[in-house]
Amino acid sequence: MAKPKCVITAEVVEPYLSQIKELCDVTVCGWASKKRLMPEEELIGHLKGAEVFIVEFEQVTRRVIGSCPDLKLVMCVRGNPVNVDAAACTARGIPLLFAPGRNANSVAEYIVGAMISLVRSIARSYHEIRNGRFLGEPKEDIYDVKYRDDMVWSMNTPGANPYLEFKGFEVYGKTFGMVGYGAVGRKLSGILLAMGMRVMAFDPYVPPEELAADGIEPASMEDVFSRSDFVSIQCKVTEETKGMIGPREFSLMKPTAIFINTARAVIVDQKALMDALTEKRIAGAVLDVFWEEPLPSNHPLLGMDNVLITPHIAGASRDVPVQHSLMVVDEVSRYVKGESPKRLFNRDVMRNIE
Amino acid sequence: MKTLITARFDKRYLDELKTIATELHFDGYGVHGVKMKKEALIKALEGVELLISEFEDITREVLDKADSLKIIVCCRNEAFASVDIKAATEKGIPVLYSGGRNAIAVAEHAIALLMCVSKNIALTDHLLKYTDELTSCSYSDKQGERRNIISEWSMDPRAPFALYGGGPEMYGKTFGQIGFGSIGREVAKRAYALDMNLLIYDPYVKQEEVEHLEAKLVDLETLMRESDFISINCNVTPETRGMISREMIDLMKPTAYLVNTARAPIMDYDALYDALKEKRIAGAGLDVFPVEPIPSGDRFLSLKNTVLTPHLAGSSRDIIGHQTEIIMEQLKILLSGGKPRFICNPQVMKT
Questions:
Q1: Predicted local confidence at residue A151, as pLDDT
Q2: Which of A7, A37, A63, A348 is the most exposed place for a label (fewest CB within 10 A)?
């Protein structure tokens, strides 16, 4: 029997790609081969005769789905397959699979690093010294140093003392509140607890016993916002979560607390967050996602010392493709064996199959 | 016992201190944020039996004039940097210190520095805020209909995802811990929580002391060769000076990151610079430098694969609480005739 034709535009790494090639007749193209997104027309051309399509970033529109009659399975290797028209898949009876938690390690580690970077002024002091502040006179030979038992930049000159200016606090003993306890929350909570933090979480879909078993205090949204030293958004964009964090939530926060968003900006009311930051009603923020990306070059966030901003890279580790490649191999072999998928996104599709 | 306190002192422990000491006088760095000058210090020490200091210089001259002084408590890890231990010992004065007061602060800073450099957190924050590189640009995939897609910054090869994403996770990687003292233990504990495999180099530690971290004690060469992330946390001693030599740095993987929050003399910074410049290692987080403040124009300042902080790893507000807790405990042990763990000159205890 001929192997099913499989088109891959997602980055699938070895040895997993070879394993898929044993099961399917594979074509690798688009983002996977050229790091360039294939336009609709070109994609339709490549998908002629393909049964299985493994995608990462290409837009899979209703038209693409409609133009490829042989397509039987679409897997998007992202945690949320936003670039695939799920309704079109469902209507055609095509299961749409996804890769939940593929970047959970990456995002969890980013949150730990960025949170400490903000409260200990790592990024800020790095900028200041690169910019020439706090530096000493140029020296001919930096190894010509009189030995001192101790090393301090300066203890007695006010304004020249980074040790005082950037004095932060430890995360040890502080409280971390999560909105959403999914793959990232599960990964992150273990690290935070080991670092000596208290962790609480609000997630209406996770039973309180499960949180308690993980050492986490089950909490209401009000608890999370009013009692945490760090509040972190870790949920998906749904009709329920869009704009969920607004003026009321920010008004509950402690003036010393830090707001963290590595999920999606639309969950948060932009004006409410900007007002809370501008009016110093909260101490700062760590933001990796924005209401518009790239961030507009005149956005006030760009001028705020108490905000750490990064260009949507929290989930961008090089180990993410390993995680999703494992999931792709698992799903492709299930498909070939005629087993039902484990990571089904459009659950309502089952009605339309057969 | 008449007492002078020039250290930063956590007031939560004041009642406890009052059960030990009387006539408390607060002055110096702990009150004004500026060290007391020699003359003022000598005057303030008249009749004082217990001195709780931090950054003040307790020199031989100061000690010679402090006739009533019986106990010195220096709230630093490195009391020897502020107190003339030899002179105190000659006078039979025990010098207590606050061992490990900054262990948690340094451990958190070290782990975060590794994350900041390997995930380009500090670099992209800098590029966003202070340059146009990431904001004043148009990307090929953000035109027309795609303008409204906000789930990613851009998939253009010139966009940050391609340029500055793609760093390694710590999860599942090998962590090399050099030095397993108060700070090293805290760093290693965090690496273990990140699901890393631990290699530890510390000739003064036995395998059973690292079992709880499922760690392997190895020699320095093995650690340098096999680790993906390396943290240096040891004191400067004749043994450790220059220990991370050019040969050791040359053993590192091209994908490995290193963080130094200890002291610069432990490492050959020339060799480190060459390795970073020639991309023979992936990056470094540095909190300490051969010359501090860093001289302006220093070559390390222009490297993109480093994150530099100005000797901040121990700078935490929570340290005042830690150091007060530690010294109160040590002081009570000393006064009740016990043997304190953090004493610079245990030989005075015999007399």
A1: 59
A2: A348
State how many domains chain B has: 2
The distance of A142 to chain B (nearest Cα, Å) reads 6
Contacts of B316 in chain A (CB under 8 A): 120, 167-170
Is B81 a domain residue?
yes
CA end-to-end distance (rounded Å), chain A: 22
How high is the mean pLDDT of chain B?
A: 92
Instruction: Write the pLDDT tens digit of every residue in B83-126.
Output: 999 999 999 999 999 999 999 999 999 999 999 999 999 999 99
- Co-location of B183 and B297 in the same domain: yes
B45 and B7 in one domain?
yes
User: Mutate which of A58, A64, A85, A130 to disrupt the B interface (most B C-beta within 10 Å)?
Assistant: A130
- Cβ within 8 Å, pair A168-B150: no
Compute the Cα dihedral for B329, B331, B337, B340 and give only its sign: positive
Q: For residue B52, give its domain range.
A: 2-101+318-350
pLDDT at A145: 74
Chain B residues within an 8 Å CB radius of A317: 119, 165-169
Query: What whole-number distance in Å separates Cα of residue A224 and Cα of residue A243?
Result: 17
Pairwise CB contact (< 8 Å): A142 & B290? yes
The catalytic residue positions of B are 263, 292, 311
Phi then psi dihedrals of residue B337, to 5 deg: 85, 10
My answer on whether B304 and B194 are in the same domain is yes
Q: Which of A57, A120, A138 sits opposite B297 (nearest CB)?
A: A138
How many A/B residue pairs have CB atoms within 8 Å? 288
**Token output for A179:** 């909105």
List, for residues A69-118, the tens digit of each pLDDT value: 999 999 999 988 989 999 999 999 999 999 999 999 999 999 999 999 99
Distances, alpha carbon A79 to alpha carbons A83, A343, B136, B257, in Å: 11, 10, 29, 28
- CB spacing of A316 vs B129 below 8 angstroms: no
Q: Are residues B115 and B194 in the same domain?
A: yes
Nearest by CB to residue A105, choosing from B82, B171, B316, is: B171
Higher pLDDT residue, B214 or A130? B214
Task: Give the active site residue among A264, A324, A331, A343.
Answer: A264
Cα distance between residue B5 and residue B28, in whole Å: 8
B96 and B207 inside one domain: no
> For residue B146, is it within any domain?
no
**A319: chain B residues, CB-CB within 8 Å:** 168-169, 171-172
In a domain, residue B133? The reply is: no
Q: In CATH, what number is assigned to the domain containing residue B86? A: 3.40.50.720
Other Cβ atoms less than 10 A from the Cβ of A219: the count is: 22
User: Mean pLDDT for chain A?
Assistant: 92
Instruction: Say if residue B109 is in the same domain as residue B176.
Output: yes
Residues B269 and B345 in one domain: no
Ordered by where they begin, the domains of chain A are: 5-102+319-352 (3.40.50.720), 104-120+169-309 (3.40.50.720)
Do B245 and B343 lie in a common domain?
Answer: no
Q: Does residue B303 lie in a domain region?
A: yes
Tell me the chain A residues in contact with residue B161 when contact means C-beta distances shorter than 8 Å: 311-313, 316
- Distances in Å between the Cα of A270 and the Cα atoms of A278, A301, B112 are 12, 11, 28
Nearest residue to A8 via CA among A76, A89, A62, A97: A76
